[in-house]
Amino acid sequence: MELLPQALTGNSYPGRGVLWCRTVDGSALGAYFLTGRSAASQARTLHLTSDGELIVAPSQPGEHDHLRHYVAARQVGAQVVFGNGEQVSTVADRLVSGQAPLLALDGLDYEPDPPIFTPRLTVIAEGEGSGRAWFGAARHSVGDRAATNRLTLHVSDLAPGEGVLMTTYRTNEDGIATGAPFTEVTSTARNRTDLLDELWSALPPGLRIAAAVFAPGELSGADLRQKTR
């Protein structure tokens, strides 16, 4: 497995990302991060609302853009749902209605932003120390086929220092492409604070916007890091 910092520093533009990780102290934690190249992408903040949701919002009052502004994480009982778009609210609502995680992640589509067609990445993570999580990725085919490829990954029994990472983008010899389906990583982070430090320092300094680390069932206590403006 690749070290988490190396997996990120080796990717000059990871875009948005989700991480499920068990730190050295045994804590099972979720993380979400934002990087951006355009001025509009950079003009965003990540903050907790009074309702306990983690929101990606414009840094200045302005028109809502459903591809850039959305609920990034929502608590559903002892579970937390997090991801890179408006599908987070859809999946959370499905869980509230009683659907199982696999069904709640079904039927999602990639973002309508040609030519790259950004994947929609979603994680449902369980609380109470179980360490179980379900990843969902809605991806465009590498060819011309328009139908969505849907990947579901069930992760359990992570050992301390192990994690799973998904990013929307990766950099290759042809420029920016959609990210790998998933990457298994290792982390030396001892606790939540260390994990946020490790994640933040590995993001491209000129592109990073915000990052958050949180435990399922404790989203209101998320640790946040923002770019200084």
**Largest sheet, strands/sense/barrel:** 7 strands, mixed
Strand numbers in spatial order across the main sheet = 1-14-11-2-3-15-16
What is the name of the CATH superfamily?
Inosine monophosphate cyclohydrolase-like
Total discrete domains: 1
Q: So, CATH architecture?
A: 4-Layer Sandwich
Domain Inosine monophosphate cyclohydrolase-like: 13-203
InterPro entries: IMP_cyclohydrolase-like, IMP_cyclohydrolase-like_sf
Pfam families: IMP_cyclohyd
Protein name: Inosine monophosphate cyclohydrolase-like domain-containing protein
What does this structure look like?
The protein has 229 residues and is α+β, with helices and mostly antiparallel strands. It has one domain (2-226): 4-Layer Sandwich (Glutamine Phosphoribosylpyrophosphate, subunit 1, domain 1). Helices cover 15% and strands 38% of the residues. It has helices at 4-9, 39-42, 87-96, 101-104, 192-202, and strands spanning 2-3, 16-22, 28-35, 44-48, 54-58, 70-76, 79-83, 120-125, 133-139, 149-155, 162-167, 169-172, 175-178, 183-186, 208-214, 223-226. It has a seven-stranded mixed β-sheet. Strand 2 (16-22) and strand 3 form a beta hairpin.
